[in-house]
Design a protein that fits this description.
four-stranded mixed sheet, 202 residues, alpha+beta
Length: 202
């Protein structure tokens, strides 16, 4: 099965346009719904309505199917970094959709960072175990309908990005393993996951 690296188009540089809240995130990482702090100020004891989760994970194979065509895509650490920066530089932090189907208001990316430390990163505090270079974000939900009917009921569990990326040159697995090892990618893990998937299909 093909492995396709997605990269930012150097000419257009559109990148990520919106963050979607979805039931089944492609990167298989659920978000954490952050509630009120332990301390209380006077009568203030309301939920913070903040969702924290991975937006993009580098080198993670994501299964895709287009008709009869089956393949995997992934993003390098460099692409994840560029995408995270461009998203904010282009002022897209208030762009959100539901299940990639329709636009929703009242969701804003209020924190954005890359995991640089497996021990001291903020994501670790909330029980997430993400690879170095992962793009993590906190989204403030100021939409009652979305919070009450979708987040609190568990109908949405994670984030998924929307954007425009270019396909890097497609190559056989053996060549990809050779080339990508120079970029310090977890290629063997990607190959193993794909072999396991292929074996289950037979």
């Amino acid at each position: 099965m093909r492995i396709v690296e997605l990269i930012l188009d150097e000419d257009q540089e559109i990148g990520v346009e919106a963050i979607s809240v979805v039931e089944n995130p492609a990167i298989e990482e659920d978000f954490v719904a952050l509630k009120s702090q332990e301390f209380k100020l006077a009568e203030v004891d309301k939920e913070r309505r903040i969702l924290m989760g991975a937006l993009l994970i580098p080198n993670k194979p994501i299964y895709r199917r287009n008709g009869e065509d089956e393949y995997y895509i992934y993003f390098s650490k460099d692409t994840v970094l560029k995408a995270s920066q461009m998203y904010l530089m282009q002022g897209n932090q208030n762009n959100a959709t539901m299940e990639h189907q329709y636009e929703i208001n009242g969701l804003s990316l209020v924190e954005s960072w890359l995991v640089e430390d497996k021990v001291h990163d903020k994501s670790v505090k909330y029980g997430m175990d993400l690879p170095l270079g992962s793009w993590v974000g906190s989204v403030k939900v100021n939409n009652d309908k979305i919070w009450n009917e979708f987040v609190k009921t568990g109908k949405v569990k994670g984030f998924s990005i929307e954007g425009y990326f270019a396909d890097k040159m497609e190559r056989p697995k053996e060549e990809i393993k050779e080339d990508l090892s120079k970029e310090d990618l977890q290629v063997q893990q990607i190959i193993d996951i794909i072999k396991e998937h292929d074996a289950k299909q037979q």
